[in-house]
Structure formats: structure tokens, C-alpha cells
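Form 12-C: Joint structure prediction
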Amino acid sequence: MTTSAEPYGEITQRDFGGFGRTVVHQGELLRHPTYTRFLHWTVAIFFFAALLSGLAVYAPWTFGWLAPLFGGGPMTRFLHPWFGIGFVIAWFFQFLNWRQLMSWTEADSRWLRNIRRYIKNEDRIEAEDVGFYNGGQKVQFWEILFGGLVLLISGLLMWLPEISGRILVAISYVLHDIFALIMLGGIFVHIYLSTIGQPGTFRAMTRGVVSRAWGWTHHPAWYRSVTGRDPREDCEAARRRLSNRERSATSVERADAQSTPQQSTRD
Amino acid sequence: MATERLFQIKAISGHVGAVPGGGMQSDLEVCKLVDVTTCIGCKACEVACVEWNKYPFRETTFDNTYQTMPSTEWNYWNLIKFNEHQRADGTQMWLMRKDQCMHCADPGCLRACPADGAIVQYTNGIVDFNQEHCIGCQYCVSGCPFNIPKFNSATKTVFKCTLCSDRVGAGLEPACIKACPTGCLHFGTKSEMKELAEARASQLREQSGFPDAGVYDPSSIGGTHVIYVLHDAKHPELYGGLPADPQIPFSYTYWKWLAKPIGLVITLLGLLAIVFHYIFTGPKRPQPEAGREEL
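Section 2 - Result
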């Protein structure tokens, strides 16, 4: 079976290709190798630790109850910068891992122009030229890179007020808030689309695999590159198989005088 | 500190809801008057301050002036700032100013503080820090226009002058006032001190040849509970960097109480938008989908 490890950088491939094991069953495609998944969840843990401890200080009037989870106010304040540093370090490796995949292409600009159709869910399957990542995912990637840099710099200035002085701290305070909110909004969309919004996606970050149908639906160009097959043709073939099966199932049901349609396996 | 029971509270940092007991009793506003024109720089107030607050005397820094150290410290709340000033007519003046917390009517430290109860303002005007509630973020340092709150890196909390709230609560004047040998320091109600200060300033203008003499009680922060009589009220910067127009950064005023909550609500509305997307548009499943054709 072909793997999706090919688009990863040579260095990543060489150093981390043998890291962990991903079992790819019949009808599945390798989406994320173990190294990527490890980084993703490391980043996620630090992100949420920083988010929740930060919210306790951002809005004590609403989220003050989060502070005891981290050992009280002083401990929350002490830990938050370290969570941030952990996030930045883990994210830096993820950046190295993904930067080639995330480079902006003409296809991404086209995707972004048609974002309205994407939100309204008007296309059953994505445009032919959507590769490993679509334009939206790339926007989020660069948003996290840029936002993370602003949070890092403003955070350091607030962490070391003896060096930065009161005016830089005051400016950083506002910037830190703005970019934290942007990233909070981003994480809502990210979690929604990777779970209930697009069923079948979540296991790309747990077991590291997706179904073939997921591949040709959401990332047709990637499907073509890893399988060497035409995504639209494969989808149509699957559709024909499914409707044949449903038709025969319905005729059986009619013979049995039953109205409930046959439940077919879906992702 | 134990003074919480003695004084009526006016404002509490990072506090949800109303101030307990707020507005139930009226209280006279206290005020410290520093007449810099009669300060001789003896530092008795500095010693009285560390003595009353039971701090060890810090090592001093000699920098060719009559100033004990460059700035106030976490356990050195009261410092006579010294400046050798050359006037336009060639004469020299030694400007001494007692630097300490100004106990602003609109305290930038309290506005900036996110920790519930770490900074409290009493109805008598005293702004006090409660270190047991301090989380050590040092936003107060950034919020203060007078560079007063100082961080103690050992306890990870911030300290500053309390206006001797413990003494004032017991009906005594602050330790610095008690120690002053020249009568340059006065303590009383804000209105009394304001009156005394204005009288002294007009005396300086009319009888002592200081036409620019005046009272420093900056309106940009609603006035302070430490006021100065200056020979040259038009240039307060000469007196150890006293700001002419002290400002609380925008971050801790409109941004903090208006933009921050609104921003948070807008972001959280994103969650609602996602729920509606799921309900009205629904998930995007891998194709083909069984049963979809019949819908």
C-alpha cells in the first residue's frame, strides 16, 4: 500500500519514519504517521493547558473557577508561561514537520474563493485540486504560526516586566488578548470539523488512518497522489455499487413487506 | 491585612459583583501633604517607614547625590528623590521630593489587577495591597503611572506603601508624618490638606518669589491622596520624574472593562454558530452516502 508519508520532508522521513507503528487496514489510507500524531497531541495538551490557565486570568469574573484546577491563582499565573513555552516548542517541531505540506498554492486561493460553498456544504466532494491540506487548513496553520509568534513575544514581554517596562507590558496585554481570542475561535472550528462536522476525520489523529472514501471526498488530489487512481471515478464506482445494493435490498424488503431501508455500513 | 475590618471598602480588584458593604457608610478622605519647599532631605521619613513596617534597612547606593537609592523597593516604600536643578537665572536649587504611593482616586494598579481582593481601595482613599491574594502577574506595575508597586521575587508578590493603613485605622498619623522634623509633612482630610496646600502655594507665589508655585493633585487620575506643594508646579518632572499628566494605559481602562468582555462573548458566540451549522447544514460525510438519494 502506498503511504502518505511521501509528502513529508526528507529529514522528517529519515529521522522519524521509524517512530511508532501505524496499522493500515484494507480500505484505509495512512494519513498521519505516529510522529505527527505525537506532535499534534503534545501541542494540543499544552494549548489547552495554556488556554484554560490563561482564561482564568483573562476573565476572572467568568472563568476564575478554572484557577483552582491549576493549584490556585499564584500557581496558575506561574504555570501559564511555561505551558506557553511548551506549546511553542512542540508547535515548532510540528511546523518543521508540516511546513512543506502547508505551502500556499493556486489551488488554495481557488478553495478560499469558494469558501462559501464549503461552509454551506454544497459540494458533495471537494474540488479536484484539493491536496493533502485544503486552503482552510493552511490558513489555520499560518494563523497559529503568526498568532503563536505574537503570543510568544507579547508573553515574554509580560513575563519579564523589569526588562520590558510598563508601556510595552500594557501593549502586550492587549495583543496577547486579541491573538488568544483568535486562536480560541480557531480551535472551535478545528475541533468541530475534525469530529462531528466531518465524520471519519478524527481517527486520522488517533490511529493515523482514514477511509478511502474520506480521501476522495475531502482531499481528492491527495487521494490521486497516494493511490494513483481517479477520485471521482472511484467515488462514482462506489456510488453505483451502493445503489445496486440498495436496490436489491429494497426489492427484498418489498417482498417481505417491510418499509425500513437497509442500514449500510458508513463511516 | 487586619485593616479590612476597620475601613469601608470602595473598590476591589478582579472582584465579581458588588463591593460588600459598599456605600453603606461615608468616610472622610485622608490625605498626606508634602511641602517639598520645606524638605531638608534628612530621610527621617525613610527610616520611620522601614522601622514601622519592620523591614531591615537596605544597602544604599551612592550616585553623587543625596538620594539613598535609585528608586523605591519592595521593602523600601518611601524615598526622598533628589535633583540638583539649575534655574534660568543661574542659581541652583536642591529639589527634594518624598516619593511613595500616591493613593490615586482612580488607581491604575487596581484597574490592572486580575486577582480578586489583591488590591483594595477604601472609602477613605487608601489603596492597599493584600499579598495573600496576589498572584504575582505584575500588571499593577504596568498600570501605575508613578512606578510604585515593586515585585518581591522571593514571595512572588508585589508590595508598596500602605499609607500606614494599620496606623490610620487606629487613629494615628502615618509613620513618615510622625517622624518629619521640619513640618514639611502634614496629614489630615483631603479638603483640609488641599486648603493648607493652596495657602502655602499662594504664600510662595506672593511672598517668596516663586511665581509658578502650585499644588500637585493631578486630575487625570481623579486626584491623589498624597499631594505636593511645588516651587514650580509647571514642571513637576524636575522633582524626581513626577509626571505632569499621569495616565493609566488604555489596556487597563477601556480595553479591560469594555473590549475584553465583548471580545470574549463574540468568540464564545462562535460556539453557537458551530452548533447552528451542525443543525442547519449538517455534517459533511464521506461520499457516497447510503440513503442520501432519497432525502
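Section 3 - Comments
The domain at 10-230 of chain A is CATH 1.20.950.20 (Fumarate Reductase Cytochrome B subunit). Residues 166-194 of chain A form the longest helix (29 residues).
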